[in-house]
Amino acid sequence: MAANASSAEELRSRDVSAARGFLLRGALLIVVVAAFMSVGNVNIGAIGQGLGYALAGVTVYLTFRVLGFVDLTVDGAFPIGGATCAVLIVNGHSPEVAILAAFIAGALTGLATALIDIIFKIEGLLASIIVITAAYTVTLHIMAGRSNIPLLGEETLISRHSKAWRAWLIEQFGDGMRRQSTNLLEIMLFGVIVIIVLFILYLFLRTEVGLAIRASGKNPQMVRATGLNHNMMIALGLMVANGLAGVAGSLVVQQFGFADVSLGFGLIVRGLAAVIIGEVLLRPRSVGQLLIAAVTGMLIFDISRAWIFSALDLPTTDIQFVSALVVLAALGAPRLYDRWKTYRQRHSG
Prior knowledge:
Blueprint: H1 2-39, H2 45-66, H3 74-90, H4 95-119, H5 124-142, E1 148-150, H6 157-173, H7 181-205, H8 208-218, H9 220-225, H10 230-256, E2 258-260, H11 267-282, H12 287-312, H13 319-348
Antiparallel strand pairs: 1-2
């Protein structure tokens, strides 16, 4: 009994120490990023854009890290969610209803990948490629054959509060805040939505069903041995993950002011970069920390990309090339660091 109590106390001490380290690294990262943005003249709009895409990073974390499923469906679920949101808003529905519908549309996209994998025994990578290929046509059908749907003059989450928010900022802080009012509103609204979604997801992953989903990714044999349906857990996990991609698509569409059929192009690579950036910088341990790290990674990604544009004064036509450079840096830096450590160890010995 004494040994068990001592072991439990030691585990609690490690958890507390890990949590403190995570918070310390997070606080230090905030200070560094704030200084970086100030010195590099990076507009705070990059934070709002990062928050808009943040849940797509969580999608990639859930599929690759939790489910262990090589899934590219996010590239299809994102524009489908955005198109669903735009069509509903244009037809007079509230932004909240449109966001919920975007989640359902994204979840159904994830279900399609799961069913192809389960029924036809096609591996996840190929199944998701099939789905994102079909998703292009599905997105066009949702938008009634149009490749682009503008939201100018429509009531979105941002436009609903824009005038009152701008008037309040100017009254409190002066006319200089007029230019940044929309960016600050996006940060506030999207930040609240992301926090609420992460909290709900965290609670879900700690329920019996959530634990079963996590176990399906780590040890499918054990899940089958306990009598649970492994395929059902994977399907549910893909639905939840890609539902979040649909929500991200709905936020970005409202932020940009239009829905486009090619909006999710290359999002999977961006999501992977966000997950790796968050894990390298914050070194998370628990599920909650990993979710926060995925969001943080997406924010760092967008801030880094905005800094490159600002520093080099590049045209917007170079956005995909700059994104590729940021992704390359995020994926390649940890490997170069590992090789450098190995080189140092060999030569120091």
